[in-house]
Predict the structure of Phospholipid carrier-dependent glycosyltransferase.
Amino acid sequence: MLPRFGLKYAVVLLVLLASAVVGAYGFSTLELAPMNSSTRTILLSLAGLAALTVLTRKPPVILCLGLLACMSIACGQTWPVIVVAVFALSATVLGRWMLRQQASADWSVHLLVGAGTFGTLTGLAAYLPINYPWLYGTLLSLPLLLGHTHVSAIGRELLRHIQATRSAQTPLQTGLDVMVCGFACLYVLVAFMPEVGHDALAMHLFVPSHLAQRHQWSFDASTYVWAVMPMLADWIYSIVYMLAGETAARLGNSAFTLLLAWQIRNVTLWAGGSATSARWASLIFLSTPLAFAESSSLHVESAWTAFMLAGTLAILKVSSFTPDPSERLSQLLLAGVLLGFAMATKAVTLSVLPVLLAILLLQYRAWAIQGLGKTLLLGSAGLLLAGATPYVSAGYLTGNPVFPFFNAIFHSPLWPNINFEPPAAFGTGMTWDTLYRMVFKSSQFIEGRVGAAGFQWLLLPTAAVAVLLSGNKKALGILLVGVGAMFVTFHSTAYLRYVFPSFALFSVILALPFSDARIFPRNLAIVAGTLLILTNTRFIQAATYYGDINPSALLSQAGREAYLLERLPIRKMVDTVNTLNSGYQPVAVFAPPLMAGLRGDALYASWYNLKWKNEFDGARTPAALTQRLRQHQVNWLLIDLKSLPQAPLERLLAVSTSYARLDDLDLRKLDVTRYELLLNPELSSLEGWSLTSSSSYDASRKILTVNVKTPATQRVEVTPGLSYINSVSARCAATPTAGRVQANWMDDQGDFITASIETFDCTRQWETHEMNVVAPANATSVIIYASGHTDTPVAFRSLSFR
């Protein structure tokens, strides 16, 4: 409590005045950017919801749900919306059953426990080729069928809210609800847009699409350096992707951001805030450009922060603020599970856990009670079961449990014995002007523009001082966690995405004093809050390059295709590759690593795949490069013609033939015709060939006439694991019959290993028949056959093995 005109109150006003001066200077340096599509979307949503709210007596939240349902139908995204809603309902029912009322928690905690469990099961299933839509349909259906009583109760509760009026709300609360719902409309609409984000297409959408197409994940860190990193959020996205595709995954990400707004509301109320201040906290968070950036593309920070925030609140509840001792222990157990899920989502959790442990130790008297031993054991087990799996897997597969980080300590052979370093562009540590630079020099902290961090940071010093002087111990605990997490993380790398949980916590800290009429006059707080929301809204796209709202891309498939063709043609090129690469062989990618949806492995000549990069860099001649590509069974190459240095580009062009091109992207096929292994493939003479019957060769016409009993053969050396093309040009010698394309593989002792055979029906016309083969691991040579499939003769005029 800060008495008006007291010393403490004067200190707060002095800090506010200093912040206003600093902010005014910062704003004087800004150049106002043009109005963006996201800002226009918010304004249109607000106008529509405000009109509906005035014309009806329904709560804005219910009106918003109706509006979102109409938008999903108009955009043709009804099925993804249904799938995400079913996932949320199923996860909530599962989480409620798992907790069994062990700890007092609302539906959001139940949902997180259930979602984390579903994601963990998916991560385990990813090791096996069992990942099909029917499996995940069954997985989501079971909790709904077994918990039908709870599902019915949720349905009745929702119906009650739909039938309710907003009579209990004040005009300010109604206005804040309208604004929160306006941002919710933006977050859902942006999820309906096609994915164009770098991290999403390189990893977070790549993993679900790979799982859906190949039915398991390879966990091959030598091909993708991030393949064994914690990926709980990606496994959660994979569930809905398996059932409803890309939009469902993006919508799941946006749903986590909206869930965070609800969690922030709960934390604010727990800390002593009013219903109004809880709405302000949620609105401050949703208006933050970084929060929108997390939903504009498929990222994992929203899901990670949801687990972190719920776990943090559970830690804070393990204190004297929770009067029931048994409830404190239950919250301790719950914290272990939720923070375990956070660990399994993002390794940055490991740097924040010491801060939470310090908070826990500071209040040890509250939980050091009878029954602690069992709770600590169960909580630790929950933490390990929920969070340790990816680290154990990484340690087993690579020798480094946090691969590729700290490899100077763990010495995994898959990465140099140096520590993996974050981008140097973002720096480390905190200085006296960090908050100012975060707002007005945001590019030092994220791939964004001025204002990316949101302008609420200008008010944070005032709010923090008010909390420190007010004596609100709950708010003080929230502040300490937020500052501690930010300080520890920035010590490693000053990157805003890694401190997203602090953004959520500081939204609570901002709302508590500024919405308290006993500290700040109500009208002043409303003006400050309104200006903050308007400013954040004006800069809503400052933290992302992917947040455009394009009506044509939303409303029609043709508009969606045109948008991708103009905005990111590489996505269309992936579809072309999939059409041509029928064998799903690896594709060598010399372009940005945006290959989500590729039906096969992508070989990146970058830090994603150091082994392949070194092989590519070491292939200094076209012949050496061809050998490297064939060793990896590559037939197709995707090249960005403007991104490669001249020398390697010339080598790539020399060994390949262009098949399709979009702008600077060139899809090329490896040209193996010049690397013929057979001697006399055109049968100009019999040198190299072994004939069962000398009369089978017509020297004047250069034709072999053979059948199954009188084949012609030639033996050539091969390299194990290489792909080859075995082709023949043949026709019927007299009557219709069947012929063979045949290769017999031999080991270094000359013993037979196996045969690769494909039959064909011959005609009276010369036709080419082709077979793609891969040399077995122990093969050193192959015998190529010119042979019929029956006793009826077949004529051959050429054979090829390349």
Observations:
- The chain has three domains: 7-28+36-387+449-538, 559-669, 690-801.
- The domain at 690-801 is CATH 2.60.120.260 (Jelly Rolls).
- The chain is about 55% helix and 10% strand.
- The radius of gyration is 32 Å.
